[in-house]
Input
Amino acid sequence: MSDYTAHPLVEGFPGKSASHGAFGWSSLWLLDDGERRVLVDAGQPAYIPLIHTGLERLGYNAADVTDVLLTHMHWDHVANFTMFPNATTWVGEQELRWAADQPAGTKFIPDLHVQELLRRTSGVERISAGREILPGIHALDSAGHTPHHLAFLLERAAEPLVFAGDSVKNVHELQTLRADSSLDDEASTATIDRLRSLLRDTSGTLVPGHDVGLRLVDGEARRVRPQRAEISYFVDGATGEQDRSIG
Ligand SMILES: [Zn+2]
Output
């Protein structure tokens, strides 16, 4: 069995809008060992064209994705699991149950996607923390942001990768151990501390829910490359400013 190579199809971005709600610019990575194509999180609806072009760039299409691992039941991490006709979607049993128990309209929870995951009798595997989900990929408890959030540790790779989802959303949270937008601040801090120790012990890279990969350098959380995003707006013809870069 060969190692996985890990490709970001969309890199996360740690922005939020004061006027228009969450961006939902989450991390979406593909793991490929030549046999399986595993997505870690499924992203938000606006990512659909990015997923297609990202897969095409690697010589694949949506039908080639074999597995989708979901860290938690928020819209910007879940929405596109339906676009992979041959994939098994792996979802935390307790997280799914918790999401299903929330009233319709609870912020960040995509009601219809939750119902669809519950409804499907094939192609959905319910999992729990502490298990090896696929060879070399382990599900870890990372509660706080949501009550039953999962992180995934990829051991079968040139360097270990910890996919933290929103249990660690960005470089700031890994550095300070304090999480924005958590349902349980104390649990979040304990989780970030644990994942930080794992990172130190494995000398690996952590992929946060909304940032580029992070490493610990002399105990400091550092991005492996500069953060970057572009926002443009619709203009009439070629006039007007089209692109503004931030970050
Ligand atoms: Zn989230």
Q: What stands out?
A: The chain has one domain: 5-13+24-226. The chain has a mean pLDDT of 94.
